Amino acid sequence: MSKPSPAHRPTGTTASPQPAPGPSPAVMPTYARQDLVFERGEGAWLYTVGGTRYLDFASGVAVNALGHCHPRLIAALDDQSRKLWHTSNLYRVAGQEKLAERLVATTFADRVFFCNSGAEACEGAIKAARRYHFVSGQPERWRIITFKGAFHGRTLATLAAGGNEKYLEGFGHPADGFDQIAFGDHAALEAAITSATAAIMIEPVQGEGGVRSVPDQCLRGLRELCDRHGLLLILDEVQSGVGRTGRLFAHEWAGIEPDIVAVAKGIGGGFPLGAVLATEAAAKGMTAGTHGSTFGGNPLATAVGNAVLDVVLEPGFLEGVVSKSLQLKQGLEGLKDQFNGVVEDVRGRGLLMGLKLAPHVPAAELVRAASANEHLLLVGAGDNVVRVLPPLVVEDAEISDALTRLARVLGGFAKSKS
User: Fold this and answer.
1) Options 236, 249, 339, 413, the catalytic residue
2) For this structure, is 236 an active site residue?
3) Running DSSP on this structure, what letter comes out for residue 249?
4) What mean pLDDT is reported for the chain?
C-alpha cells in the first residue's frame, strides 16, 4: 500500500510549517525530548515557531560555541555552499588542510584526522593508541584505562570505554579492552597498569558524568605516569575544548602536552565536525587504509571550522571567556549560598559549569522547570547535576539575566521542599 501524499502549502506562501502536536511517531523515541520546536536563533537566544523567546544556556550541549547564527559562520558556510559541498577523502580537501595546519600551529599536535562527531573522534583516538603500540612491536598493549562517570560517546566501543551500565544494557557483551577505575582513585590507577596497558583516557572536565574537573596537578601526574610506563595519554576534549574553559583546550591550564586529543562539538559551531589531534609519534600507526571517514573534514564542515577558529583565536576572545566565566561562577556560588538546601556544590571550569543538587531535587525536574517557567534552557548530567553551558559569545547582561531566572527556579524548589 502506498503512503498518502503529503499536504502542501499553497503556492507562494511564506508561512513556516507548524509542527504537529506532540512528537512524531516517525522519529525513534531514543530521547526524552522537551515538547519544544525552535524555528530560529540569534546569539544566546532561541525562538519557537510561535515566537516565544528562550535564553539558551544549553548551547546544543556545548556545541554552539559562538551562539546561534553567528554572522562569520553564516558567511563561511554560504560562501562554501556556492562552490563545493563534498568530494570525499579520496582527494585532497583544501579547507581540511588549512584547518589541520592551523590546529597544528596552535596546539601540541603534529597530525589531525577529521571526522563528524565526538564519538567518532574518541573511536579514532582509541584506534590510534592501539595502533601505535602495534607498530612499535608491542601488539599485546591494547587495553585502555578509563574512569567511572566518563562519557565518550554512544558507539559500542565508546560505550564500553564509558562503562555506564544503563547505556550498555541490551547491546550484548561490552567491547573488550577497557579497564575502568574510580574517578580520583590514584592507588587504583597505579594498580590497573599492566603490561597490556596502552593508554589512559580521561576528560579534563567530565560533562555527562557530573561536571567533575580533573585538578591541574592530577593532569600533570597523569602525564608523568604515562611517561614512566610508556603509555599514551588520551584526552577527551569533545566538551571542554575550543575555548570553553578560557583556553583553546582545557589541558593547557595544566601546562601539559597529551599524546592524543579527541575534539568535536565547538569546533564546528553547530555543523557536524570532529577531529583527532595527535603527536607525530602517537599517529605513526595511522597510515593509508587503517582508518577513514567518507564525510569527515569535507569542504562545508572545514569552512565552518576555520571560521570558528578565526573568531576564537582573535586577540582577547579567550580572555573574554575567562572574564565571563568568573561572573558566572560567582553568580552560581551566590545561588548556592542563597539556596543551600537545594544546591550542594558548584562545579566546572570556564563556561562549562554545573550545579550539584540535593538528593530531593532531581536534576531533570529542575531543567524542565527552568524551561517551562523561566524560558531558560539548561542541560542535565550524571550525579544529579545541572549543566550551565552558555555560548562563548554570551553577553554579561545575559549571564545576569540567566542567574536571575535560575534564582526564581531554585526558589520554587526551596519553597516546595521546605
Assistant:
1) 236
2) yes
3) S
4) 94
Q: In this structure, are residues 145 and 181 in contact, taking their beta carbons and an 8 Å threshold?
A: yes
Tell me which of 265, 324, 329, 356 is the catalytic residue: 265
Contact 170, 135 (CB under 8 A): no
Q: Look up 183 and say whether it is catalytic.
A: no
Query: β-strands 376-377, 352-357: how paired?
Result: unpaired
Q: Among 418, 383, 387, which Cα is nearest to 402's?
A: 387
Q: What pLDDT is stored for residue 6 in this prediction?
A: 42
Q: Which of 147, 151, 249, 271 is catalytic?
A: 151
Q: What is the pTM of this model?
A: 0.92
Quote the percentage of the chain above a pLDDT of 90: 88
State yes or no: is 113 an active-site residue.
no
Written out in words, the top-level CATH class of the domain with range 72-312 is alpha beta
Neighbours of 316 (CB within 10 A): 8
Give domain limits for the chain: 38-62+317-417, 72-312
CATH of 38-62+317-417, one of 3.90.1150.10, 3.40.630.10, 3.40.50.720, 3.20.20.70: 3.90.1150.10
59-80: average pLDDT:
98
Q: For residues 295 and 161, give the distance between their C-alpha atoms in angstroms, rounded to a whole number.
A: 24
